[in-house]
């Protein structure tokens, strides 16, 4: 192979080396977790560029999560002497966004099109259902949204969907009306980003030829999770001269429920005439016990392509298993453990807390928040989805695009300005009748309501006027004040936190500007070497961010527009806390491809993980097992598995048995760090499990074999009640006024000792232990 700079290929084993230096042709790398697939992919990009085989503009690399894409850019920038930001490396959605920004005209979109996140999408669908006078019981907005997303993932427009019955016929009408509405408002949802890009590539030969010639190398990480549309999309971008490298692991396919197709791997082999499948068998990530656990677990799946994975790293520490009696206690334990690790010198950012469902993060988050431990949540209850943030963003979006009806409706009467439901209905009727946006239809409403609407439009216009030429920070500060949001929250009882969040928004914008290099020299960044190559809809130049400069004017998209895109696409991934050493919280899905020194997998309970929705069929269970395999294989050095006997979920206390996955792990690799309760073993547990599976009430069984908890060593009493009884975090207590609660945190000692207690209905309270009359109860 062409000579590479010294050192680039040094840390590769022979199979990896072969994959990295393969002559340009299609190849599939099929290998288990931690075997270096992503390393091969990034090193190949670096090698291709460093040996002069392709310019940075000739490479496209796709992955699934924002965090993984960032990771790839980071790894790459360490290997390349050139700036990597401008390269086409990102998520499917990120790349589609970039493509459509460059070719908005050809794609039939307004230049300042906005992206709907899933919340916006749902409310947009609701509006359509309402406008069509359909019954929300029969046309459940969530289900309709899924239907539309599913159609788009299958590449189907309303006219392509097969009419099976009357209900589908109506659904298709809703789909059509939703599309019209989005088009009118100049907004696109996530599925639309993909489909619109795919269709434009399919239908515009000149554009397709351009990109086909341009992308000489296309590399796809996590290929096992591509869905039908993504695969078709890929085939559009890959030209006769392109070489595609697909990298994946069938054991880590975790999106089948959303239409991902492991079958794409077989199709890829066949359709791209792949004559070489590269396998990697050595795991470089984890110690032996962790890998043993992963291997043993996944061996319970039947449909596998079959791969071996070994490590030469030695067994390392055993996998620690912890059982708690409540999710609060679990969180408390986790915090103590994480704090100890931190004191021992483990960076917080090297500690990940994984969970199966987003709902689980709430308890963890509030415990972390109260303990003052910095943390970041990826995905989940996201910063940009909070009401006050969405209000502010809506004003900002209206500045960019006054026809964005979703944003218009969100804030037209927020803060209140005397615009009632009647007025809005009139406005919507007028807009519908004329096929125009709400903004454009304001003149059609008469009387007081009309005047108030006009005042609202004037307010937004004035904000647009006043923010011309301001920095992003100044724009946001101005809008928060001028919109009346700040004043509104200043007078509201619970407004303080919301005001703080709005400040965070300003900080997030600031961080965004710094990170994305939106400074003065942004325009000077390298521009695509092939610019001007085709006449029609000239190709995008390479900009500092995922947003290319406007194809016609060459103008870089405004920082505001870029920030709004970022808010929709990356959601909470980039909060203002970025850069701080913080504990990493995320769902297992979001952890794909990542690795950490320490991993906690929490909530390992039947019904939760494996998830109850999956238990009815074998496919579902196998997917859960792959998910667990992904979770385990994120850990480099230390792995914790925890489960809890009770858990508050969706407002109910659930009594849980530990996950069946524990039975599938080799006992030799595990260490139980909670004493296993006598009587909580086989017989009792069997009853428990049976009761769970019957779905019947568990009340009768609960008290039965239960032993009082022996506090583990770390949870030695830290404080006492005013009567001198020992108290510890995780313990149940009774208070005369607030009733039963659970201690979350204890701070201070002696007369100063105070505890934070969750009293359920009465909420969280801080109580001075020397004063409060608390009685310990069996929780
Ligand atoms: P996953 O399936 O989880 O995405 P992967 O196959 O992509 O995993 P990588 O993330 O590329 O694996 O690699 C796992 C770890 O092993 C990384 O820290 C990587 O730097 C390291 N690694 C890979 N190959 C080697 C090697 N030849 N020598 C030393 N370390 C390696
Ligand atoms: Mg990887």
Automatic annotation (TrEMBL):
GO MF entries = 3'-5' DNA helicase activity; ATP binding; ATP hydrolysis activity; DNA binding
Q: Name one Pfam family in it.
A: UvrD-helicase
Question: Which reaction is recorded as catalysed by this protein?
Answer: Couples ATP hydrolysis with the unwinding of duplex DNA by translocating in the 3'-5' direction; ATP + H2O = ADP + phosphate + H(+)
Q: Establish whether keyword Acyltransferase is in the entry.
A: no
Q: Where on the tree of life does the source sit, at the highest rank?
A: Bacteria
Q: Which GO terms describe its cellular component?
A: cytosol; DNA helicase complex
* Coiled-coil ranges per UniProt: none
Q: Which residues cross the membrane?
A: none
Positions contributing to ATP binding: 31-38
At the top of the EC hierarchy, this enzyme's class is isomerase
Q: What GO biological process terms are annotated to this protein in UniProt?
A: recombinational repair; response to radiation
Ordered alphabetically, the record's keywords are: ATP-binding, DNA-binding, Helicase, Hydrolase, Isomerase, Nucleotide-binding
Stretches assigned to the UvrD-like helicase C-terminal domain: 288-593
Its EC number is 5.6.2.4
- Domain UvrD-like helicase ATP-binding, first and last residues per copy: 10-287
Give the similarity note. Answer: Belongs to the helicase family. UvrD subfamily.
Report what the protein is called. Answer: DNA 3'-5' helicase
Q: Which organism is this protein's natural source?
A: Caldimonas caldifontis
């Amino acid at each position: 192979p062409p000579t590479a700079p010294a050192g680039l290929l040094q840390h590769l084993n022979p199979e990896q080396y072969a994959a990295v230096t393969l002559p340009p042709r299609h190849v599939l790398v099929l290998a288990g977790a931690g075997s270096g697939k992503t390393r091969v992919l990034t090193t190949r990009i670096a090698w291709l560029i460093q040996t002069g085989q392709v310019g940075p503009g000739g490479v496209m690399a796709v992955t699934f999560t924002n965090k993984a894409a960032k990771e790839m850019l980071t790894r790459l920038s360490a290997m390349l002497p050139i700036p990597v930001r401008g390269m086409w490396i990102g998520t499917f959605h990120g790349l589609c966004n970039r493509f459509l920004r460059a070719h908005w005209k050809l794609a039939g979109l307004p230049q300042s099109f906005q992206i709907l996140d899933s919340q916006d999408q749902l409310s947009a669908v609701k509006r359509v259902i309402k406008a069509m006078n359909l019954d929300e019981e029969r046309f459940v907005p969530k289900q309709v949204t899924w239907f539309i997303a599913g159609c788009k993932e299958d590449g189907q427009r309303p006219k392509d969907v097969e009419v099976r019955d009357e209900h589908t016929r109506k659904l298709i009408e809703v789909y059509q009306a939703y599309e019209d509405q989005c088009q009118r408002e100049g907004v696109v949802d996530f599925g639309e980003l993909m489909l619109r890009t795919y269709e434009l590539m399919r239908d515009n030969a000149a554009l397709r030829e351009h990109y086909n010639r341009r992308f000489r190398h296309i590399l796809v990480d996590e290929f096992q999770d591509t869905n039908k549309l993504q695969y078709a999309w890929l085939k559009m971008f890959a030209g006769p001269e392109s070489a595609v490298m697909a990298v994946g692991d069938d054991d880590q396919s975790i999106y089948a429920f959303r239409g991902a197709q492991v079958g794409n791997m077989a199709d890829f082999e066949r359709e791209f005439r792949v004559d070489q499948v590269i396998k990697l068998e050595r795991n470089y990530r984890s110690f032996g016990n962790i890998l043993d656990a992963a291997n043993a677990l996944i061996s319970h799946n039947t449909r596998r392509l079959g791969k071996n994975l070994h490590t030469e790293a030695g067994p390392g520490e055993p996998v620690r298993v912890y059982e708690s009696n409540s999710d609060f206690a679990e969180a408390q334990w986790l915090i103590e453990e994480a704090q100890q690790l931190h004191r021992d010198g483990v960076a917080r950012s090297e500690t990940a807390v994984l969970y199966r469902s987003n709902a689980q993060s709430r308890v963890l988050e509030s415990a972390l928040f109260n303990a003052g431990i910095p943390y970041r949540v990826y995905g989940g209850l996201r910063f940009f989805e909070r009401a006050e943030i969405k209000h502010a963003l809506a004003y900002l979006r209206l500045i960019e695009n006054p026809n964005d009806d979703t944003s218009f409706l969100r804030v037209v009467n927020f803060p209140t300005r005397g615009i009632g439901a009647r007025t809005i209905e009139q406005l919507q009727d007028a807009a519908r009748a004329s096929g125009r946006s709400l903004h454009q239809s304001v003149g059609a409403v008469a009387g007081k309501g009309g005047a108030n609407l006009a005042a609202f439009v004037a307010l937004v216009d004035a904000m647009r006027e006043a923010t011309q030429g301001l920095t992003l920070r100044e724009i946001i500060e101005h809008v928060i004040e001028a919109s009346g949001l700040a004043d509104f929250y200043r007078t509201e009882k619970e407004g303080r936190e919301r005001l703080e969040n709005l400040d965070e928004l300003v900080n997030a914008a600031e961080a965004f500007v710094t990170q994305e290099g939106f400074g003065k020299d942004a325009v000077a960044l390298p521009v695509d070497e092939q610019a001007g190559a085709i006449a029609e809809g000239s190709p995008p130049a390479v900009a500092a961010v995922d947003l290319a400069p406007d194809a016609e004017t060459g103008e870089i998209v405004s920082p505001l527009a870029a920030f709004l895109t970022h808010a929709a696409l990356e959601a909470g991934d980039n909060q203002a806390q970025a850069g701080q050493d913080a504990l990493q919280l995320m769902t297992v899905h979001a952890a794909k491809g990542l690795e950490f020194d320490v991993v906690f997998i929490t909530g390992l309970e039947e019904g939760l993980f494996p998830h109850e929705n999956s238990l009815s069929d074998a496919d579902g269970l196998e997917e859960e097992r792959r998910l667990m395999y992904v979770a385990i294989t994120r850990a480099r050095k230390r792995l914790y598995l925890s489960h809890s006997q009770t858990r508050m979920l969706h407002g109910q206390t659930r009594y849980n048995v530990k996950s069946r996955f524990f039975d599938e792990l080799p006992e030799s690799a595990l260490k139980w760090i909670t004493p296993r309760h006598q009587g909580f073993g086989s017989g009792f547990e069997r009853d428990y499990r049976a009761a769970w599976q019957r779905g019947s009430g568990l009340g009768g069984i609960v008290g039965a074999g239960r032993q009082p908890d022996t506090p583990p060593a770390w949870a030695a009493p830290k404080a006492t009640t005013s009567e001198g009884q020992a108290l510890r975090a995780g313990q149940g207590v009774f208070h005369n006024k607030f009733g039963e609660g659970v201690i979350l945190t204890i701070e201070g000692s002696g007369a100063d000792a105070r505890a934070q207690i969750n009293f359920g209905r009465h909420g969280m309270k801080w109580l001075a232990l020397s004063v409060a009359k608390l009685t310990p109860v069996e929780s």
